[in-house]
Specification:
The protein is 71% helix and 0% strand. It has one domain. The chain has 140 residues and is an all-alpha fold. It contains six helices and no strands. The longest helix is centred in the N-terminal third of the chain and has 28 residues.
């Protein structure tokens, strides 16, 4: 992976800290998505409804992010939503950290805050709901 990143633009130098932050952002995003899925699974009792709802949410999150389309080419009503999408934060932070984009789309500090917020809210909400609903217990 590192070779592919470097070979795509050998003139750009990426600091190891930037690259670490990029991979950490992806790691935290995946844990946030897992927590989000657990939260939905615990909240929705029917597996069919869960699959349909998760598919709809997945389609919205992917298409309303900057992973497929740059923000400047989106209609204004999509762009306003895409700016707050956690997948946009993860993608932009990875592009920044890997040195793939010359122009930073989202400021790294805002993207880091967005990823940590997404991770924290849904991971801990998923843990809390799983403990409450499925295990029937509490934190004590």
């Amino acid at each position: 992976v590192l070779y592919l990143i470097w070979s795509s633009n050998p003139q750009s130098f990426v600091s190891p800290l930037q690259l670490f932050i990029a991979f950490l952002a992806l790691f935290l995003f995946t844990f946030g998505v897992s927590g989000f899925s657990i939260t939905l699974a615990v909240s929705i009792k029917s597996s069919d409804k869960f699959d349909i709802f998760l598919g709809m949410i997945n389609a919205l999150i992917v298409r309303l992010s900057t992973t497929l389309y740059p923000l400047v080419y989106m209609p204004s009503y999509y762009a306003s939503v895409a700016q707050f999408n956690p997948l946009t934060f993860a993608a932009d932070l990875f592009r920044w950290g890997a040195g793939l984009e010359s122009a930073v789309l989202t400021a790294p500090a805002i993207a880091i805050f967005g990823i940590i917020s997404f991770f924290s809210i849904f991971t801990f909400l998923g843990i809390f709901l799983h403990e409450r609903v499925l295990e029937g217990g509490s934190w004590q």
